[in-house]
Protein: Phosphoadenosine phosphosulfate reductase
Organism: Maritimibacter fusiformis
Amino acid sequence: MSDDVTALAGAETDADWDAALEDIAERRGYYDPLGADHLALFTDAGPELLVTFEEAATIRARPGQSPLGWTLCPDRDWSRLVLVARRQSWFRDPEVYRYFDRLADDGFFDEFDRVVVHGAGPCGYAAAAFSVAAPGATLVLTAPQATLTPALAGWDRRFAGSRRLDFTSRYGYAPDMTEAAARAFLIHDPAIAEDAMHAALFHLAGAEVIRARHHGARLADNLEASGALAKIVTTAMVGRLDRLALARALRARRDLQPYLRGLLDRLEAADRPALIAALCRNVVARKRAPRFRQALRRAEAALARTAAR
């Protein structure tokens, strides 16, 4: 797979990119257009299956323009099913419903020893919603929405253009659709109020909610960049994912520069010199970090001025 996906990197147009996806998928499994707005890519490699829900714009913005479902843990001989939305649709499309109906009717997911399903944000919603077709799967969801139905989630004003979508018909209310999962883990930053409220709806349905603080809107990017997502999915694929394993994987943030810089920015904005000093001492003890060394000097000077009063 790693050799094949390099062909995607040079795609300049949507048509070129789509043709490269089709070529790779057809040689290793299948490429299945689901109407005008969605497609399914299946590559057959082993008895474990990783399912990811992704958006085309996000994929094309990634290095190499390759789906996360193909590049995550590339050394693992997993089969992979990637569902792609060409726009931010939450996968609310009868063509997608019919595709998962067919998979369920054909016993597709029963052919695998273990199934792990992942998605983030709107794709996390879809990962949860369609997981009902794969009973016994383990779900790894990053800040998903439970629904955008105004009667249930009128407080989430972030996606005004999508509120007209139908979240009440088949595969609609995501928390209910997770009931057939073996385990469902939802990772979110509680500082984002809307994500916390969606997480509470999943928690009521039995999902394990993991609070990953200080990531903000970069949570999904940080999990991937730090290697935490790869550890989480790998652990899930061997049936050992629990709250402790997740907490250990999330500690990878300690070495992720974007996370550390964001945390420093928030502490400086809040004028918390004692916490700034503690953070910077930890970072400069482990890394060559000029910005943190300078921030440490400023914080120590502020603390000295306070002590001298």
Summary: The chain has a mean pLDDT of 94. The domain at 4-255 is CATH 3.40.50.1820 (Rossmann fold). Residues 223 and 229 are 5 Å apart (CA to CA).
